[in-house]
Amino acid sequence: MFRTKLAYYLGRFSDLRFGRTLKLVWSIAPGMTVMVICLMVASTGLLFVSLYALKVLVDVVSSFEIGSAVYRQRIIEQVIIAGGASVLHGIVNSFSTYFSELQSTTISEKIDDRIHRHTVGLDMAYYENPEYFNTLKLAKEAGGSRPNAIIMGLINAMNGGLKIVAASTVIITIDWRLLPILIAFIVPMFLVRIYFSEKQNALRIKNTPLERQASYYGQLITSEVSAKEVRSYNLGDYFKDKYFGIRKKLVAERLRISLQSTFSEAGLGSLTSLSFFICIYFIAMGAIDGRVSSGDIAIFLLMFPMFFGYLQEVMGSITTVYTNNIYVKYIFDLFDLKSELPEPESPQPIPDVKDGEGVLQVENLNFKYPHADKDVLKDVSLVIPQGKVVALVGLNGSGKSTLIKLLARLYDPNFGTVRLNGVDITNFSLAEYRRQISIVFQDFYKYNVTASENIFLGDIRRHQHDHSDIVQAAKQAGAHQFVEEFESKYDTMMGRVFEGGHEISIGQWQKLATARAFYSPARFFILDEATSALDARSEHSLFDALKANLGNRGALIISHRYSTVKHADYIYVLSDGEIVQEGAPELLAKINGAYAELFKIDMLQESV
Ligand SMILES: Nc1ncnc2c1ncn2[C@@H]1O[C@H](COP(=O)(O)OP(=O)(O)OP(=O)(O)O)[C@@H](O)[C@H]1O
């Protein structure tokens, strides 16, 4: 039984990702790592020089001969060596601590940066997958400290090993039998610690989905996004109970293992005292036989707690390496995830066409969400020419927003093609293509930054905030007037998350999001219910501005409002993922089809 467990844990060691972790850390801070190792070795060396000088000092004192000048000289020498080495040890130790902290901070910041960079590069399909969120959570938790903890664990284990070798040499000179006694009593403690550390880690990993659930409920209680609903429906206690229900279960499981571990440690701890007295027995016998000097006894009494401490240091470091390795796996698992949207090896430039001839085109598109079982889009084809406003209408769930995600290349279709100016968009670099399309999403994001920056985010490649363009975009989107009314105008912080911020209405947020899209250099605008929160006058002005400033750009608008879509140049009607009708608005209004069915009531009201 014990052998099977041992084989299991040793097997887990062979699974360590030292190579990859070392490479990762080395690529980030090579010089600093060398420096930390050198300082640690120097500090250990100095400690033992000081200890050895002390032992010699005790031996010299115990072989005391009154009035001997040589004797006096030797005492002074040993005191100077021991004192000097001890002072230097303290200084080197302080620098070693500082450089270790510097190294670990640099490494965790850089790994955190890599995790964020990698995550941003992953495509939307991962956001459909709870497994991905588990990996991301564990990787983010691990990223800050664990790779460095492995390296520090390895360095500490080496350093502790050095100290043990040095201390063993001293102990062996007293009586060689002391060493196997000490080791035999301490190794079981090491194995027990690894065993419980493994148990705690396995529990953490098993409970990650539950932890995510608990933190989701925690967020519902504390986040500003849910604050209104939680209060108006009195959901605070309801979610709090769910949150604490899960937390209670998680804490109870963790504490149960901690208690088992405490019992085992208490039992094994008494073995340590036993080992001390067995050693004392051998030393006392040695003293009677004249093999052990007073210096030996003094140094053993000094050495025993130190030796025990070093062994613990090594055991602790190996446990640290072992534990952290389990979590580091998730960083590498995350780094190994690749975007499933292929980028061409040599991307084509976006083709320029004559004014007014550019076109964004969808051909026979079929699409099913990953993990879903039915097609959301079926054989969809449509054309958005430059200089025109095209509308896409349909009932809730008919597939309009999904089509936009494909136009933004957040997903690739299962079948069919999206073309820009005649070229399949998979031939362009993803970033370059996405620059051609600016979208106001139905669930656009409210950035708590200044009004100016909210718009600037539409084209961050312009290195400096081009204020006149920002104002122009705000005017087109109808945002200029309300921004100008703030004391700090465009420098006013939006939202209430940060000091001095101003909350604005949902319609005003929507105008800022639309200004962001207008600020971008895109050739096509896509507005997914971008006017849903606008009052009738603002909506009318927005479309006037859109048409007036469209120039050679094309626009696709999605709306459930007749007042919006009736001004489009061309309309597509989507029903259950299929285009069921298309044509000019006035034409469709006359035909008794899906379009007329959608806007029957609006049309009637208008004709009254
Ligand atoms: N991430 C997803 N994974 C699986 N199915 C999805 C996902 N997002 C949307 N769907 C499904 O795809 C279908 C189309 O959704 P979509 O959001 O495109 O509709 P829509 O026409 O934009 O609706 P609305 O007018 O309500 O905005 C719906 O049946 C929806 O349940």
UniProtKB/TrEMBL annotation:
TM segments? 24-54, 149-172, 178-196, 266-288, 294-311
Topology in the membrane? Multi-pass membrane protein
Reply yes or no: does the keyword Phosphoprotein apply: no
Q: Where in the cell is it found?
A: Cell membrane
Q: What keyword terms does UniProt attach to this protein?
A: ATP-binding, Membrane, Nucleotide-binding, Transmembrane, Transmembrane helix
Which SUPFAM superfamilies is this protein grouped with? ABC transporter transmembrane region, P-loop containing nucleoside triphosphate hydrolases
Pfam families linked:
ABC_membrane, ABC_tran
The reply to whether Nucleus figures as a keyword in the UniProt entry is no
Q: Which domain of life is it from?
A: Bacteria
Fetch the InterPro entries from UniProt.
AAA+_ATPase, ABC1_TM_dom, ABC1_TM_sf, ABC_transporter-like_ATP-bd, P-loop_NTPase, Type_1_exporter
Q: What is this protein called?
A: ATP-binding cassette, subfamily B
Species of origin reads Parapedobacter indicus
